[in-house]
Amino acid sequence: MDKTDEKILDLIKGNARMTYQEIGDSIGISRVAAMKRVRKLEEAGIIRGYNTYIDRPGEHTVFIDIDAKPEKFDEILEYCATRTAYVRQIFRTTEPDHIHMVAVSDDLSGLKYLVDILAKKFADDVEHISAHGVKEIIKDVYGGISYVERSKSDSNGDNEPGGGSEPSREEGREF
Predict the structure, then answer these.
(1) What is the CATH number of the domain that holds 9?
(2) With the C-alpha atoms ordered 38, 40, 41, 42, is the resulting torsion angle positive or negative?
(3) In this structure, how many other beta carbons lie within 10 angstroms of the beta carbon of residue 76?
(4) What domain range is 24 assigned to?
(5) Is the torsion defined by CA of 21, 24, 27, 28 positive or negative?
(6) Could you tell me if 154 and 163 are in contact, meaning their C-beta atoms sit under 8 angstroms apart?
(7) Is-contact 143 168, C-beta < 8 A?
(8) Are residues 72 and 109 in the same domain?
(9) How far apart are CA 82 and CA 37, in angstroms?
(10) Which has more confidence, 50 or 153?
(11) Is 164 left (phi over 0), alpha (psi -120 to 50) or beta?
(12) Same domain membership, residue 113 and residue 81
């Protein structure tokens, strides 16, 4: 991957619907060269897919972190990956036996139930489980939300919105 590929990735990260012509024009290559480079990035697995970001008002996002006992990690991971409808993403982190999940629903009680059921089912199998609701989205390159630097007058110091001009879908919601 070279600098031209990096430029292509930066462009389509902000707008995956760009045409090959638009990509080529933006970085000074032909439409065909842009197409070949994008296809090569796809074949190499660097571009793994294209998503549509849908903003649903009233939708809640919760981050769930589980520190599993080493001998129970695989069992917990399997359960989370196959039996939890609200879970959109699951990550294995660099922390040993740590699972980080992103769960989304328009029903906050369903997310609370998910966390409660995980805590109850795996009470003896985890060292720690925690959940945190998203209050405000500051930056989400996949969802088209850019970081907007806030002045001190726009914030009370606790990451609370003050001026109302920053992008937010989950403002004021607590889990």
Answers:
(1) 1.10.10.10
(2) positive
(3) 20
(4) 3-43
(5) negative
(6) yes
(7) no
(8) yes
(9) 36
(10) 50
(11) left
(12) yes
pLDDT tens readout for residues 92-138: 999 999 999 999 998 888 899 999 999 999 999 999 999 999 888 78
Q: Please indicate, yes or no, whether residues 66 and 126 belong to a single structural domain of this protein.
A: yes
Side-chain-side CA neighbours of residue 43 (13 Å): 7
Angle between the N-to-C axes of helices 31-43 and 20-27, in degrees from 0 to 180, rounded to the nearest 10: 110
**Residue 104: which CATH number?**
3.30.70.100
34-59 in b/e burial notation, b at 16+ Cβ within 10 A? bbebbeebeeeeebeeeeeeeeeeeb
What length is written for the chain?
A: 175
Tokens for 2, please give them.
């070279």
The model's pTM: 0.60
